[in-house]
Design goal:
By secondary structure, the protein is of the alpha/beta class. It folds into two domains: 150 residues, 3-Layer(aba) Sandwich (Rossmann fold); 63 residues, no CATH class. 41% of the residues lie in helices and 23% in strands. A seven-stranded mixed β-sheet has the order 3-2-1-4-5-7-6, sandwiched between helices. The termini are far apart. The structure holds S-adenosylmethionine (SAM). InterPro entries: SAM-dependent_MTases_sf (IPR029063). It comes from Neorhodopirellula pilleata. Its EC number is 2.1.1.217. One of its GO terms (molecular function) is tRNA (adenine(22)-N1)-methyltransferase activity.
Length: 218
């Protein structure tokens, strides 16, 4: 079984299901670990590039795992997987993948964006997925991991309880669970980010919005 880095180890710890799909499987380590430890019974690895696809095939050959070539959710049928992970891409790419085939998104989704987690929170609010938890993980470099669950059909998507009582625009940018927990490393990050923006001569509208949200939240 491959040793997972702290980022993927954390993601693996959030997944337990019958059939799990991992988009952008690359080295195949996440699914190999999930299958080797019995956290999932069957896996579906999806890759859109030849070398990572070949690497996934080698890493996953001895497990109950399909390795499929294709773009995002295109090779997955509706209802085929119970859970989904997408790790190590930008938030914008992840949202493109999730919105292209909305009926193929499983009920439980774990995402580890390298940037723009705000876009992912907006996707959850617009698509009826509640943000059930979010964490910063890692040793030197910190990564964000967000976990979503499909809301019941009669619950309005914008009624995600994670945002209840919070400054919504700050919560979308910075994370509602982070704002509630106010962990030391999260507040330290906000202070560092505030200092960075305050040192800039000119702020873009997006940076201004983020700085304002940070100042309202610290
Ligand atoms: C930076 S790697 C991350 C690998 C692994 N998920 C991890 O977190 O360690 C991103 C992988 O996603 C694949 N990828 C990017 N866009 C994709 C898409 N639309 N469909 C399938 N795979 C994709 C890339 O080929 C690459 O192997």
């Amino acid at each position: 079984m491959p040793r997972l880095d702290p980022r993927l180890r954390f993601v693996a710890g959030r997944i337990r299901s019958q059939v799990h799909a991992d988009i952008g499987s690359d080295h195949g380590h996440l699914l190999a670990a999930l299958l080797a430890t019995g956290r999932v019974v069957r896996g579906i690895a999806i890759e859109n590039k030849p070398t990572p696809l070949a690497n996934s095939r080698v890493a996953l050959a001895r497990y109950a795992c399909d390795v499929r070539s294709g773009d995002g959710l295109e090779p997955l049928q509706p209802g085929e997987a119970d859970s989904l992970s997408v790790c190590g891409m930008g938030g914008r790419s992840m949202v493109e993948i999730l919105t292209r085939f909305p009926d193929r998104v499983p009920d439980h989704v774990v995402l580890q964006p390298n940037q723009r987690s705000d876009l992912i929170r907006r996707w959850g609010l617009a698509s009826g997925f509640h943000l059930i938890d979010e964490h910063w993980v890692g040793d030197h470099r910190l990564f964000e991991v967000l976990e979503f669950s499909r809301a019941a059909a009669d619950v309005l998507s914008h009624d995600d309880p994670a945002y209840e009582g919070l400054d919504r625009s700050a919560a979308v940018l910075l994370g509602p669970h982070h704002l509630r927990r106010r962990e030391t490393k999260f507040v330290e990050r906000l202070c560092e980010e505030r200092a960075y923006y305050q040192g800039l001569q000119v702020l873009t509208p997006a940076s201004r919005e983020r700085l304002d949200a940070i100042e309202r939240s610290i």
